[in-house]
Amino acid sequence: MAPALSDPAPRGTETILLVQPDPEFRTLAAFMLSRLGYTVIEAHNAMEALKIHDERGGGIDLLLAELRMPRVSGQELAEVLAPRDGTMRVLFMADPDYARLALRVAPQKHLAFLPRPFTMRVLADGVREALDQPIRRPKTLAAGNM
């Protein structure tokens, strides 16, 4: 059942690693997540996210990454980080057309998408749903080393 418009947006206190190459979109998403109570760590690409994750020694509750990024995709990043952090959930952002294409090409990968652009309520619901789900790992592609 869809939430009523008057229902408050779900909130949380978990730590989210937000990986988004577009600085304006990353800043806006980080602001919205912070307003919802989450601790947000920002990265502009997969390599920066990997470095941040390793420097922290894990402790990331949710990887919220753009699916299509230059050089290393969000999915490739998740495939590298998942074995390093057994409790981290993964949620990908993608424009609706790209998300539909990715799901058609690889439905067995169990990818969770948040279509963008999104409202604060859509972001809140998507993040909370991802955090509350059992941990599902995307099946590995033949990805290069990072």
Q: What does this molecule look like?
A:
The protein is α/β, with parallel strands linked by helices and about 150 residues long. It has a single domain (about 15-130), classed as Rossmann fold. The protein has five helices and five strands. The protein has helices spanning about 25-35, 45-55, 75-80, 95-105, 120-130; strands at about 15-20, 40-45, 60-65, 90-95, 115. Strands 2-1-3-4-5 form a five-stranded parallel β-sheet, with helices on both faces.
Quick take:
By secondary structure, the chain is of the alpha/beta class. 38% of the residues lie in helices and 16% in strands.
For this entry, give a set of tags:
single chain; 38% helix; 16% strand; disordered C terminus; 146 residues
Shape: globular
Q: What is the typical, i.e. mean, pLDDT?
A: 84
Looking at the structure, the CATH topology is: Rossmann fold
Secondary-structure class: alpha/beta
Order of the strands making up the biggest sheet: 2-1-3-4-5
- End-to-end distance: 41 Å
Approximate strand percentage: 15-25%
Give helix and strand order, one letter per element, not per position.
EHEHEHEHEH
Assigned CATH architecture: 3-Layer(aba) Sandwich
The helix content, as a percent range, equals: 25-40%
> Tell me, what is the CATH class?
Alpha Beta
Given the structure, what is the number of helices? 5
CATH homologous superfamily label: Response regulator
Number of strands: 5
* Main beta-sheet strand count, sense and barrel state: 5 strands, parallel
Question: How much is the radius of gyration in Å?
Answer: 14 Å
Number of domains: 1
Low-confidence segments, given as residue ranges, are: 140-146
